[in-house]
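step: validate -> pass
step: tokenize input -> pass
step: predict -> running
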Amino acid sequence: MASVTDNITHHRFEMVVDGQTAFLDYAFEDGRLVLIHTEVPQALEGHGIGATLVRSVLNEARTRSLQIVPRCEFVVEYLRRHPEFSDLLAPLPEQQ
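step: predict -> pass
step: emit ->
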């Protein structure tokens, strides 16, 4: 499987597979990694590319000791199915 790279210039994590790029857009807000949008080219859909991308980004967040704010529905659904990453979730504002 292709590796995931952090394209700092475009604020997205990328994974190139068969010459096509899947990506997860992000931003930093208050020191937290905000995961905004995941996109997988149609030709790559159904092969687990999105899940691999999200898992890699979450592992990178853990390595960097970053809390995440998932705004992307794909990431939200991934986290629902993989509670082992729930420790990365930034507390809601009223929980701070």
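step: describe -> The radius of gyration is 13 Å.
step: cleanup -> pass
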